[in-house]
Design brief:
By secondary structure, this protein is of the alpha+beta class. The protein is built from 12 helices and 11 strands. The strands form 4 sheets. The chain has a 5-stranded antiparallel sheet with strand order 8-7-6-3-9. The protein has a two-stranded antiparallel ribbon with strand order 1-2. The radius of gyration is 31 Å and the shape is elongated. The N terminus is likely disordered.
């Protein structure tokens, strides 16, 4: 019965007669936290998708239900993946550095059974770290690549110190010589861009390019053990709290529906039999006014271009969410033509580039072939074609 009771904080481990070391049951907090995390983690993408549809419908429940009915789940997941693929390296590398720093600085407090940070560090294989670095190199903007290099060198140095403490030469090369060589190489490549960003008063860009190579050598070894648990866990909780907010803010700006310009030419309805004249009522001055009887609809204003998000095309109508967040059901007989409009590209914040590579471009976008520039369709500007 003594083994079933909760042990006091700092209680020693229980050693059985066979020599097997066992931990008290209360020290399985990391397993419980991990189970809750694995349970709630799939709900986060669903919450982001629902919030995006709620924001797209301008907080109108009927419009949101219509979008849920017609928007493809595969399209939603594709947009979510493309927009937030950069978050995977952030999570893996940041928590990897914090966990390895805790293990090296305070090994007596590195307990995978009690700490979720320690549990994730102990169970993350090396190939996941390598994949995260490669993915970050492809999907992070150029101005964040020095930070990626800093995190990768921190991980390599902390891992080397932990696995090879009896090889001082190897530790010195990985912890000091390699960061210094990487800093010299980075400044030789990024130096003109750092100076250009400083001259253009882009201090944030200059700091992102200049600071990481210089501070890489500062965290390649352990920190004081008395502050390591509080510092690493505090930073881990901060990242875990801030990152979902940033991911949500980024995803709420991602387009989910294709933008289309539809040229509409209203036509008078065709009736099989002549319509009966509408009854009239007399007003006080004797002038007749139309009554509420059935009659032909009023004449349309004329051709127009409806610009908005294309929701679906049914057998009878084309459903569009226009720029005013109003759902319009356009009869298919009225649709004269339609064209798919390219997404509006964001205006660059920074004009700084590194050897022709803009600092706001990712390596993946930089390597992909550029779309040929073509004259924009006037319908994508909301104007009717000049000639038919």
């Amino acid at each position: 019965m003594g083994e079933d009771r909760a042990a006091a904080p700092g209680a020693p481990r229980i050693t059985t007669i066979s020599g097997e070391t066992r931990r008290p049951r209360r020290m399985a907090g990391a397993r419980q936290a991990q189970q809750w995390l694995l349970t709630l983690l799939p709900a986060f993408p669903v919450l982001l998708l629902v919030l995006r549809l709620w924001q797209l419908s301008q907080q109108d429940m009927s419009t949101m239900l219509l979008l849920v009915q017609y928007v493809s789940p595969l399209g939603l997941l594709s947009a979510l993946l493309i927009a937030l693929v950069w978050a995977f390296p952030v999570v893996v590398l940041t928590f990897g550095v914090l966990g390895r720093l805790l293990r090296l600085s305070a090994p007596d407090r590195f307990d995978p059974e009690r700490s979720l940070l320690a549990s994730g560090t102990a169970r993350t294989p090396g190939w996941v770290i390598s994949a995260a670095v490669a993915l970050g190199a492809l999907t992070w903007q150029l101005r964040f690549l020095p930070s990626l290099l800093m995190l990768a060198l921190w991980l390599l140095a902390l891992r080397t110190r932990y696995l090879h403490p009896d090889q001082p030469t190897r530790v010195l090369l990985v912890s000091v010589a390699l960061p210094l060589a990487a800093a010299v190489l980075a400044y030789s490549v990024l130096g003109p861009a750092i100076w250009a960003a400083y001259q253009d008063r882009e201090l944030a860009t200059a700091a992102l390019l200049a600071v990481p190579p210089a501070v890489t050598v500062l965290l390649t070894g352990p920190i004081p053990g008395w502050i390591a648990p509080a510092l690493t866990h505090g930073l881990a909780f901060t990242v875990a709290a801030v990152l979902p907010v940033v991911m949500g803010a980024v995803f709420l700006r991602v387009p989910l529906l294709p933008t289309a310009a539809i040229e509409v030419v209203p036509k008078e309805p065709v009736r099989a039999t002549p319509a009966a004249p509408a009854p009239t009522t007399a007003t006080g001055d004797g002038a007749p006014t139309p009554g509420n009887g059935a009659g032909p609809p009023p004449a349309a204003a004329g051709p127009e271009v409806v610009l908005g998000a294309l929701i679906a095309v049914t057998d009878t109508s084309t459903i569009v969410l226009d720029r005013a967040a109003t759902v319009r059901f356009l009869p298919n007989g009225w649709v004269e033509s339609q064209v798919l409009c390219p997404q509006v590209t964001a205006v660059p914040y920074s004009l700084v580039s590194v050897r022709g590579w803009p600092v706001e471009e990712t390596a993946l976008n930089w390597m992909m072939p550029r779309r040929p520039v073509a004259d924009p369709d006037v319908r994508c500007e909301g104007r009717l074609p000049s000639a038919r």
